[in-house]
Amino acid sequence: MGATIQIQQSKYSTDTNHQRAAILAWLLNSPLTTLQARQELDVMHPAARILELREAGHNIVTHWTTDSTGKAKHRVACYALLSEV
């Protein structure tokens, strides 16, 4: 008699399509900082995904801000989606 093991699919992925979709879904609701992308979405290189989204026609702007990691303050990008067609 074997035990049934259910594997839960992770909401995080290293797949670039998945990461772009996660970032875009976030941006549809609110701006996203580099630190939030890393901590909340597990996207380690959000600038690359933002560039790809821009190349796909999304109107995303970058504002620079200062944010704290708890250890130090860092200059980080804050991305905002201006409009969707």
Automatic annotation (TrEMBL):
InterPro entries xref list: HTH_proteobacteria
Winged helix-turn-helix domain segment(s): 19-82
Protein name, as recorded: Helix-turn-helix protein
Species whose genome carries this gene: Methylobacter tundripaludum
